[in-house]
């Protein structure tokens, strides 16, 4: 695996949540991966960024309002054959079934653990780079 730079889209209406996501992922979630971030605070902005740029991973806030990360994940998967992997940050582990319905590739639970978050993000980025399906 090369030391390639990946673009991760952070979506939340709350800038503090986006900052916590950014800190949990870090700029090097693994020694062979570098990450740059783009932020979206609204549904429209998130969809525009996915449509217009090469996004390698979308990290979504499941508690965002008025449009939550679940709805955006499902729309991205339904609308695009080449959808980037999606990772949903949820408040309760019990909500994982909703994430599965929305075709989310991975879930993380608030508060974000940097080790788990980094491992999850690295796994999703590696799967995308290899052309493998992120869904297990």
TrEMBL record:
Keyword Phosphoprotein: yes
Record PROSITE patterns: RESPONSE_REGULATORY
Modified residues (4-aspartylphosphate): 61
Response regulatory domain mapped to chain residues: 7-125
Keywords noted in UniProt: Phosphoprotein
Protein name: Response regulatory domain-containing protein
Native species: Plantactinospora alkalitolerans
Source lineage: Bacteria, Bacillati, Actinomycetota, Actinomycetes, Micromonosporales
